[in-house]
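Table 4 source record.
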Amino acid sequence: MENIFLKRIYEPFDEMDGCRILIDRVWPRGVSKEAAKLSYWFKEIAPSPELRKWFCHKPELYEEFRGKYIEELRLDEQKFQMIEQIIDMASKDKVTLLYGAKDPIYNHARVLQEELVRRVGSL
């Protein structure tokens, strides 16, 4: 879906971000609520605490993490509902998913974006 973007929360706010949704379970260090300028905080859409701790942002575990997180996104009713909300928002305006991870490639935001694109394609 061309209306859903990823951005580190540490990058400056931009009016062009549209709806800004923090998708981390834990609030990012050093970012004030005012500076974040969030529209929503969907902490429940983040990987489960157990999965997040297991992955620990290790690139060599990424593929296995990806599979487990996709399973959570598809089976957890709360996560499923939040995905539906994001898709609905993105059908009307630009949505920027904000995450705190340092690695722009091996993180849960990429997996979530992939699942959103897959879900929209199956509608």
